[in-house]
């Protein structure tokens, strides 16, 4: 059996295993990566080069800072301010969803759900109504806005690392509106969908007691990440390390942890913050980077690119359409992190074969994959987290319940992003 065939079979088995055994995804990716190296498909001396350490460090550092941010109760206070301005349950649900979306543009989606969902639960208990619709709206809104900035979602971080895009590139890129504005317009359209879905929820909302925040330093750290990433984006590549963004995030996390240790004088703070970092995602990504490096070395990426080109008969619009909507369908059932990590080099290969700018395909991929995860309860980690929170409260969420809200919301957002991306970047 030739090397390319072995690589394809191994890659297919890896993907199937990731789908069937989601609880051990990291181990599956690492074992697959080891097999690629042991079989010589990926030379040992190229292993470290295939891992995007900037992405790994960014995720770890941001998660650490977010842990401190959650502990400070600042998200709850911000949510309290929003609730004070809402007249009824409908607007409370939509406002919380919009708030979750705003936070998620700068903070990991799962962390956002963990911040905002407890507020929805509190409101539901006071009004004696089901929190299920509100938590679903929070989860899917978090997924949508995650693609708005470089630090909003792992998929955005992957795109930034692969396509050499900095923080500001998500706002304006080559003199044109960036992904941020496309996502925000999609969010606006999908907000009208939420307003329609919850049009009957008109129970009045009573003002709740405000959360008290005693430590504003984690908020400063989180804002600091955004500001320093913007500053770093202005430094020419030749004058900064390739892992500059990751070093910024990890550095600010360490500042926050050390400060907390000095205040509390308890070494336990180091473990408390470090254990909140999602090592499963980090190990999964590390393994996938190596696996993708292996199939790229074997020439599989080029073959996949050729399949897309043949299916579209060299028509860029057809390729763009295929990438967007295939990504929506696939990401509805497969976590979008491994999918995007795999497809970024594929889209690059397609663009190279057709001699076109790859960015329209990159943006289409992110729009389809990130927003597409909203369709089903298992399509994104934020959805799984939201359903887990509800389960702890005694609420079982069926796929039908979830999709009643998620499908119209997702289709509205994706269709808007699909049209705008093509009109701006065609």
Automatic annotation (TrEMBL):
The keyword Membrane applies. It is a multi-pass membrane protein. The chain crosses the membrane at residues 6-21, 28-47, 53-70, 91-124, 136-159, 179-197, 217-235, 242-262, 277-295, 316-339, 359-384, 405-425. Its main location: membrane. The keyword Cell membrane applies. Keywords: Cell membrane, Membrane, Transmembrane, Transmembrane helix, Transport. GO terms for molecular function: arsenite transmembrane transporter activity. InterPro entries: Arsenical_pump_ArsB (IPR000802), Cit_transptr-like_dom (IPR004680), Diverse_Ion_Transporter (IPR051475). GO terms for cellular component: plasma membrane. It comes from the Bacteria. Signal peptide: none annotated. It is found in: Cell membrane. Residues 20-368 form the Citrate transporter-like domain. Belongs to the CitM (TC 2.A.11) transporter family. This is Na+/H+ antiporter NhaD. It comes from Anaerocolumna aminovalerica.
